[in-house]
Structure formats: structure tokens, C-alpha cells
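Quick question, first post here. What does this chain look like in 3D?
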Amino acid sequence: MRPSTLCLGLAALAGCVEPVDNPADNVFSARVQEVVLEVDYQHGAEPWTGPLLHEQRAWDLVVANFAALFDQGPAPRRLVIPTALDQMQPIALPPTEGFTREQIWDIAQRHRDDSSSEVRRVFYVVFLDGYLLEDGAFQPHILGISLRGRGVVAMFTPVTRATSHLAEQTGLVHELGHAMGLVDLGVDLTTAHHDEEASGHCLNPSCVMYRVNRDSLMKPVYREKVAYGMQPVLFCDRCLSDVGLATTLADP
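> Answer (accepted):
Ran it through. C-alpha cells below.
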């Protein structure tokens, strides 16, 4: 059972602060000083942490895209994101072929170690050795899901291993985008780029928030940016503009 109040101590903020149930609530506010990614993985479902297309470490892609989102505001935030497997936590789960959303939430409740507060937000990611189980059927094409409003992302390793290391990373960035309120899932739009036929997705096929995660779409964007010495930010300008508006509204 978690305490109802988090006492952070003088190193962070003096006194105690109330916990936040949904880490995405006003996450782009200047009051938020630290954003953390807590990553667990089921035994046998380790995420890939090696090189990505022979150019950089895989999890540097998550770092670059998180940084792009939180660079939209005037106040710097500390980003705590693991990039190596020894910075992530293995967990033991009973063997099963599939996981329902309810089971994923239960796993998060039992295994996450950290909690969010007004000044510190924690998103939880778990890599599972099985498929999404929805409406009584396995979903063999779903890379990952976000439990929206809860700050929880699940990635399905049998699916990601059948695709590519890049698809695993772009799928993770995509689901974390949902977890933080993109597209039009809590973060308001600045322009009309929401896909009305696929809620929560961007109309731009070159954006990581597009409805389909394909290497044929993301690989050219990634490779071009790396080739020109740019950060491989896969959120399109319109999604980043939405975040900029959210920052402005959160901190009038």
C-alpha cells in the first residue's frame, strides 16, 4: 500500500507533497521539475538496448524524443530515462500467452516502485512475454498499449521481436506520447491534425503518432535526421506545437 502523502525531503522540496494519480495531468507545467521513466521487464522479454541501425543506442531515441517534448517550455526539467538493461528491473510473472488491460494494470500496481507528485512525474513501462488479450482474442499485431490516465505503457515483446529494433522503439515513443496526452487525448490541438478515424493519432504519416507504426515510414525520417547530425525527434512539428500550447496554458 502506498502512502497517501510523499515526503520528498530537502533535496527535492521541503515538506510533503500530495501524490498525483495521473502523471500526465499538467505534466508540461513548469511546476514539474523531474520526469521519470520506470522500466520493468518480464523474464524472457528483455527490451533491446543495443545499437539501433548501427548508429546509436536504442534507448537514446526515447531520450531524444522526451527531451523534445519537454524543451517546449521555458523551465528545464530533469529527465530520468534508463538506457541500459541494468537500469531496468526484471520481474517474475506466471507464464501466459496474453494479458488483458486489467491484468496489465494489476501488474503495474504490484511492481511499480515509484509514484508521481506535483513536482515529479513517473511513467511506468513494462515489457511482457505475451500478447494483448482483448475481447477474448490475442492481438498479434499490437506492439504496445497505453493505459491512458494511468501513466502505464505495456510493450508486447513477441510482437516487437517479430518486427525490428526500430519498431520497438518507435512503438514505445508512440505509446508514451499517448500516455502524456497526444494526440487530443488531454493535450489540446493547435492545428487540425487529429485523425478522426483513429482517435489519438496524427494525420501526418511521417509523425511517430501516426496510426500505423511501419519501418517504411519511420526509418527514412530517423536516418535522414541522424545523417544530418540532428536529434532523431519523430514527433512532427504540429504535435510539438500542441505541447507548446499545453505548456503555455499550464503556466499562465
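The domain at 18-187 is CATH 3.40.390 (Collagenase (Catalytic Domain)).
Helices lie at 60-70, 101-111, 157-160, 165-179, 215-227, 237-250.
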